[in-house]
Fold:
Amino acid sequence: MPDFPAGFRWGVSTSAYQIEGATTVDGRGPSIWDTFAHEAGRIVDGSTGDQACDHYHRHAEDTALLAGLGVSAYRFSIAWPRVQPTGTGPANTAGLDFYDRLVDGLLAAGIDPVATLFHWDLPQPLEDAGGWLHRDTAARFAEYADLTATRLGDRVKLWITLNEPFIHMTLGYGIGTHAPGRALLFDAFPAAHHQLLGHGLAVAALRARTASPVAIANNYSPVRQVGDTDADRAAAQAYDALHNRLFTDPLLGRGYPDAPGLDPAVIRDGDLDVLAAPIDVLGVNYYNPTGVRAPEEGSPLPFEMVPLDGYPRTAFDWPVAPDGLRELLRQLHHRYGDALPPVQVTESGCAYDDAPDAQGRVDDPERIAYLDGHVRAMREAMAEGVPVTGYFVWSLLDNWEWAEGFTKRFGLVHVDYPTQRRTPKSSYAWFRDLVRR
Ligand code: FCB
Structure:
């Protein structure tokens, strides 16, 4: 493995609803994921995040696992319905107390707390009022950011406003396989604009309360055009605009790209200035490239997504393509030039069907190979001049993987859900050794 610059940030990521459990404790209100997971047929194994990894009660044990890993940063998310149980009004002190304990535990272990404000768990009452389709949700988000930073702004080392607004818009409002389960296709665009507006307003709220840097974590997927007709090219461009540019161009001062579904009537005067508030770091979540070609006639979509041949696949059936990470980092650098802030890879990881052997050990050589390939690809992009300053593995723990429930294991640490026993996998030792070097 090549050397990394001093001060490079190595970390792991998690999110609140996927690990915390304790969904009715200390005044927490319901989120859209509580509602969605409890609806029949939404989650493949019929499970919910009611208990998840019980991290709410086991955070000290999990902080010890982080300390053993030797990471310099831990990216977690804050559950909005713990801070504001109905999404409006004063802070729920007991909810913030939990994050206060977590943050202090991390700092005592020498680990930088990196907090994401929104990883998809919107308070249910806000969804009842229209969720992210409703412009007011952006203002509510800034208010929540203010309350949270008032309590934690002196200790969180990097703030991330939103996690993957593209995935939340597409799966949550576009096709409905995620909460809140709306299937509006391209009429979901207001959920894009209002998330971005909320981001911009939250950046301003955070700046007023903290001197720590501020970021957003976007999902990116380099597009592999399949076929070479003009129609295939147009399809690849449309998909790229939607997935890779819609949530980045306006943040970096370029305004919206020409993306399918974009509805100018949703955008008010002055909004683009709010969105373009400078950020200090761009968070990049990368899992795989996407194959795209022209759609069949009569398709409601301007593109068709096609499986990419020739790659090994994870248990999620996602192609293992480290070269895609290098390509994507180069592309961001090329596209935005000097407007690109330093990048941190805020999620990178893979699911495999890991299980303990007869001795209780969990050996996951595929995950080691996956991470090794992606870290090397990132390092190559850095050598070519892309400003990358951190890398976070998704995830510390096996956890509740949204619509896939407990069926997909992404952790460096295996979790036996009935007993909540944590067992570091061989990838945990591999990552620890990498960080140490
Ligand atoms: C990302 C999400 C994260 C997890 C990984 C596998 O899209 O941000 O919560 O589900 O995928």
The chain has 14 helices and 13 strands. The chain has a mean pLDDT of 98. The first helix runs from residue 16 to 19. Residues 15, 18, 163-164, 167, 219, 285, 347, 394, 401-402, 410 surround beta-D-fucopyranose (CB under 6 Å).
